[in-house]
Write a structure and sequence with these properties.
- By secondary structure, this protein is an alpha+beta fold.
- It has a single domain (2-217), classed as B-lactam Antibiotic, Isopenicillin N Synthase, Chain (Jelly Rolls), CATH 2.60.120.
- It is built from 8 helices and 11 strands.
- α1 (2-15) crosses α7 (191-204).
C-alpha cells in the first residue's frame, strides 16, 4: 500500500496546481442542469426552513473551522452512498449523481451564514479536484473564496475548480446566506495512475473519518 501511495504521490506532484484545471465531464453535466439543482435547493429550504446542519456536527474534522456554527451543509452523496433525505428532496440531482457516481466522491450544499469566515486551511485528499457551483449568492460582492493568490467572487451558476489541498479560505460579509454546490471528482491522471487513484479513493471510505460522517448523517 505504501509503495502504491508513493507512486501516485510522485505523479501528483508533477501535475499539481491550485487552479486552472479543465472542467470534468461530470461537472459539465451538473452545470448544464444547474437550473434543476437550484430549483430543488429552493424547494428544500422552503419545505424545511433550514439550510442543513452545522458542518462540524457532521464532520469532526471541521470543528476548528466552525466554532461559530455559521457554516452549514446538506450532504447528498458521500463516497458511494446517498444520504437518507437526498432522494426525497433532490430526486433529479440524485439521478445526475447516479450517472456519474464512479467519478465522484462527494457532493454537498455548502452554506455560509452572514458574518461567517472559514479560516485559511488545506484539505488532505490529493486524489480529487473540487468544484464550486453558485446556487444562491444574493450578494456576490460581499462574499468570496481565496485559493492561494486568487480571489473568486462567485455569482449564481458560476463555476470555479481548484485543488483544495492548497491553502484556501471563504467568507460572507453580506446579510444573506451564500450557498454553493461542492463537487469532489476524481483527479485525472494518465491511465495507470487513474487506476491507482481510484483504488486508493475506495479505501478512503473505510476510514474512521468517513465512516463517522456517514453514521452521523444517518442519525
Amino acid at each position: 500500500m505504501k509503495i502504491i501511495e508513493e507512486i501516485l504521490s510522485k505523479k501528483n506532484r508533477e501535475i499539481r496546481k491550485p487552479y486552472g484545471y479543465d472542467t470534468p465531464a461530470a461537472v459539465k453535466d451538473f452545470q448544464k442542469n444547474i437550473d434543476i439543482i437550484i430549483s430543488e435547493w429552493n424547494n428544500y429550504v422552503q419545505q424545511t426552513s433550514t439550510t442543513g446542519k452545522p458542518i462540524d456536527e457532521l464532520s469532526q474534522a471541521q470543528k476548528h473551522l466552525n466554532e461559530d456554527k455559521k457554516w452549514k451543509a446538506f450532504f447528498v452523496f458521500v463516497y458511494g452512498e446517498f444520504t437518507p433525505e437526498a432522494e426525497k428532496y433532490f430526486p433529479q440531482t440524485v439521478k445526475l449523481v447516479e450517472k456519474w457516481k464512479n467519478d465522484l466522491t462527494l457532493l454537498f450544499f455548502s452554506n455560509l451564514e452572514p458574518g461567517k469566515h472559514i479560516p485559511a486551511h488545506k484539505g488532505n485528499n490529493h486524489g480529487v479536484i473540487r468544484s464550486q457551483l453558485g446556487i444562491d449568492i444574493q450578494q456576490p460582492e460581499t462574499t468570496g473564496l481565496r485559493v492561494e493568490d486568487k480571489i473568486v467572487q462567485l455569482k449564481n451558476k458560476d463555476l470555479f475548480i481548484f485543488d483544495d489541498t492548497f491553502e484556501h479560505e471563504a467568507w460572507n460579509k453580506g446579510s444573506a446566506v451564500r450557498t454553493v454546490l461542492i463537487i469532489d471528482s476524481c483527479k485525472k491522471f494518465p491511465h495507470f495512475y487513474n487506476t491507482i487513484n481510484k483504488y486508493l479513493l475506495g479505501k478512503v471510505k473505510n476510514t474512521t473519518y468517513v465512516q463517522s460522517t456517514l453514521a452521523k448523517l444517518k442519525e
